[in-house]
Design brief:
The protein has about 160 residues and is α/β, with parallel strands linked by helices. The protein has helices at about 20-30, 50-60, 80-85, 95-115, 135-140, 150-165, and strands at about 10-15, 35-40, 70-75, 90-95, 120-125. The protein has a five-stranded parallel beta sheet with strand order 3-2-1-4-5, with helices on both faces. Bound molecules: coenzyme A.
Length: about 160
């Protein structure tokens, strides 16, 4: 009898900060895979407002009730991290056609770097298709309301960061 291995998927990103759009993708991915590892990039190429520890913490608070998730940080190449986890599936969300070219380039590059790796795209839910982390950062920096864009568990933390409340 063939023993089926648990299907593990990696959902990578910068998450500066995590948004309701990201959470929607994580929830839906857990309905397809046995385990979803949210992999927070600690790349020095992208300047972030939140530190790596803060970004990981905010996602952990937000996925507390979502079973089958784990949150980790990684540095270096995504394909190397994926191999180290014994996984081969990357999950990415597609919000609109504007995401497509960038995502296609990343999927092709990762495939070239490691032929075993497959990228699977989930279409963002319509209500989240306009949300981005930079939009959240901009609104928060002017003291605007961000409760419709980010998980409740992160709200006070984000406000504090921008407004020193
Ligand atoms: N809901 C809301 N926002 C979403 C989203 C969704 N479903 N999907 C993407 N976004 C937004 C983010 O909010 C972010 O917005 P911003 O640009 O306004 O800040 C933007 O899309 C992209 O962010 P994110 O999803 O966090 O991904 P990223 O493009 O920053 O992450 C990595 C890219 C980390 C996966 C990639 O750089 C990587 O793999 N790095 C490791 C090094 C490597 O292997 N490089 C070669 C890769 S080809």
């Amino acid at each position: 009898m063939k023993v089926l291995k648990p299907k593990k998927a990696i959902y990578p990103g910068t998450f500066d900060p995590v948004t309701l759009g990201h959470i929607d993708i994580i929830k839906r991915a857990t309905e397809i895979f046995d385990e979803v590892i949210v992999a927070v990039s600690n790349s020095s190429n992208k300047k972030t407002v939140f530190t790596i520890d803060e970004r990981v913490k905010m996602i952990r608070w937000s996925v507390e009730d979502i079973k089958k998730t784990r949150v980790e940080s990684f540095s270096g190449l995504l394909v190397d991290y994926i191999s180290s986890k014994g996984a081969k599936i990357i999950i990415r969300g597609l919000r609109s056609s504007t995401d497509f070219d960038y995502e296609q380039m990343m999927a092709f590059t990762n495939k070239k770097l490691n032929n075993r790796v497959e990228t699977i795209f989930l279409m963002s839910a319509g209500e989240y298709s306009f949300i981005s982390s930079s939009l959240v950062r901009e609104i928060a920096s002017y003291g605007g309301k961000i409760d419709k864009f980010v998980p409740e568990a992160t709200l006070s933390f984000i406000k504090k960061k921008f407004l020193n409340l």
